[in-house]
Task: structure prediction
Amino acid sequence: MESRWIPAFAGMTGNMRAVASELAPTSGRVWACLGGGAPHLCLMDTTDSEHDPELSAAPTVLARFKRALNLSMAAVIALALIFIAQGAFDLDRFAIRPQQPAGLIGILCAPLLHGSVGHLAANALSLLILGTLAGTVFPKATLRALPVIWLGSGLGTWLIATEGLHLGASGVIHGLGFLVFTLGVLRRDRPAIAAALIAFFFFGGMLMTVLPLELGVSWEYHLSGAVMGIFAGIVWRRADPAPPRRRYSWEDEEEAAQADPELEPPSPEDVPVLWHRPSSATSGSVIEFRRTKRESVTELAPGAETPGRNGPGIAPDSNESS
Result:
């Protein structure tokens, strides 16, 4: 007969319910088997999974993801509606005109305007991905950085650009991208590193678009946004708390080994010295080793006459010449 498992408190007798209520707080969830005879209790140890900090934080992360996605989609819809209404007013009045007092209004309005459908589509997709990514992993840092990126990218473009009209959300998008890059490098926790890798995978080309490589593209806007994103990442790198991390048993074992003085070797300063070198230098004698005749012969230059036993110019004995 096939067994069927149900939660223990779902329709059991009074005695079984009492036993289950006593076992559940200390032994995890209690399940009842309704097959193979009379119903009986079974303990399932689920305490490890229920107290896993990463799993317990999953609902919070999911809620942040939904909120960031909804806000990013609302921003994209707003950009689309503004693009539809752009025909009713003059874009030149609301774009950034470098180093002109009348162009300062573009610092506030230029990120909302776009020159073509392709321009809007490219920025909308980037804003949707980067906005959702930054808002999910770094909600507090993103909220504080957005005004700085918005205003700083426009002001930097107004200062360093030389001519033309500058508009579009690309400055804000570059700021968000470099914000995620910077936080991933500085924080170095797993969610931050994962977010930086995802952003680099999709928008690694931002590292090149901050340079004057293409005509008709406001590299000044991109560069200003990137600088503001890096600045905001450095300033607010600790705005969001560190994510919960599961602690493994081998980490506890390492700490216990370090805390145990019997297992931890002493430092070199604590090791006792067993022998000290005498302070006064002892006098010694040098023993001279005489060279043998054969060693003296080998040190002569090639072709030199070998002196014999009876003096120079006399051949050596037969037993010495062999």
User: Anything to note?
Assistant: The CA atoms of residues 175 and 225 lie 4 Å apart. The domain at 54-235 is CATH 1.20.1540.10 (Rhomboid-like fold).
